[in-house]
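ok trying this again, last paste got cut off
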Amino acid sequence: KACPNCCFCALFHFTVVPVILKALTYDEKRGSCSVGSNVRDAACYVCWAFARAYDPSELIPFINQISSALVIAAVFDRDVNCRRAASAAFQENVGRQGTFPHGIDILTAADYFAVGNRVNCYLTISVYIAGFPEYTQPMIDHLVNMKINHWDSVIRELSTKALHNLTPRAPEYMANVVLPRLLPLSVGTDLHTRHGAILACAEITHALCKLAEENNRSVTYYFNEKSLEGLKQIHQEVCRKGLGGELMRPAVCTLIEKLSLSKMPFRGDPIIGGWQWLINDSLRSLPLVSSTARQHIKESAVSALAALCNEYYINEKGEADPALQDELVTRYISGLQNTEEMIRCGFSLALGALPRFLLKGRLQQVLEGLKKATIISPEDVSFAQARRDALIAIAKVCQTVGVKGEGSQEEYVCKDNVTQIYATLLNGVTDYTTDSRGDVGGWVRKAAMTSLMEVTLLLVQNETELINANICKQIMCWLAQQAAEKIDKFRAHAGSVFLTLLHFDRPPVPHIPHREELERIFPRSETETLNWNASSEAFPRITQLLGLPTYQYYVLLGLSVSVGGLTETTVRK
């Protein structure tokens, strides 16, 4: 803090410039947090003082270093106060010195308010600034050297996504310098560095392959044999050293996903079997990890599975190998009856992620397996999350296979299986299971409502005649009941789905009871403004449905649940 005063008193010597630049990135972990934000903030103040204390000619030798350091701090610092301090210091130097490269252009994009959003800084502003050659390499080097091994996992993940976005700005540098530097780090000993390096390798590889494809080049244009082997060995080395649970499993799954999306030439390679084993093992291991990490691991594994299947399991005829198809489908369906709830969740979503060519000929078996996973039995009454994910998977499967009214029930949603699908989804709306966690059936009801909407809109846009009047009546009545209930978030979701189906017009959903009256009660113009979360707004509207015979019983049922609730405000409304 004494440095700015020294600047104004002309006691400052420029040998401390390297120290100030180092202070701009100082960050040291202490326990579960870090120290250093106050040091970085003070360093920005010193740089601000430079602009006021010295003539432009005196700072010329250090302009590129100072400007790059301030840009990096303004865009990539973890703390918003430091980003804003760096932006203010940069602005002061641009205004008073006038020698910072592209100063006005950068200030327009990275002003005091723009740098307030960290995600925007990493993923958008950084790409714009990297378009100026003076800043491209310093920004990339900072992410590789300081951020992919950061103690905060959010910063590590943001940094790797930023590297993906920055790759088109310097593809040769990424391929020839950055990637070879990251590959050894991805199999190193430090967990945080290994985690960040694996994600960075995945993102950079994907970006390079997309760039090559856009320029009509081979996907391996930017890679030499050593890099390709290094990318394959990451999975083997990580498995040998240990997956590290909550960090390494999703990281390696992301690597598998990105390499598959990159269309790397690994078809027929034994590594594909290793990748499939890791995905399956990650889904089987869900009960062993903490509840906070399960969702991330599950989503990463399912995304990796979808990408892997689409790239490496389809032949030239667009079909799957029968033995492989049988193994995958059978394995996942058998997992739906596992005694562990989380394994059921993982395998349900895995079935929902399978591409069409793997579901062809096995659709009825998959739907039947998912239907059984939604049924409540005395042994698994508390498995609400498994039932939720099974309902989500049913909608995903329907969207994947598509609709064909006269088609085979083993390949399409058609007249022979649509009733069964709707019966399963409508049964989910009746789940009112409660346990020590509260109304866990609400998770199932919410998933059922979403799936009903998705399947209905799919049918409306393809084969409207598959929706009969009775099914549509049941959907709208059950949604009306949910829109009259006590828990705000479930009421809001039901109301949103109800209005989506009511006002959908491409083409309209057929057979909606009392459509004209509903459109008067819920005008299209108020769809976005009606706050279903507020009971004072929702109940006066939904009670108007009591005058419509079709909805009367269901709305009364929903209101009865609300009146019997524990919340005094809801009871009064």
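PB: full thing came through this time. Residues 2-145 form one domain.
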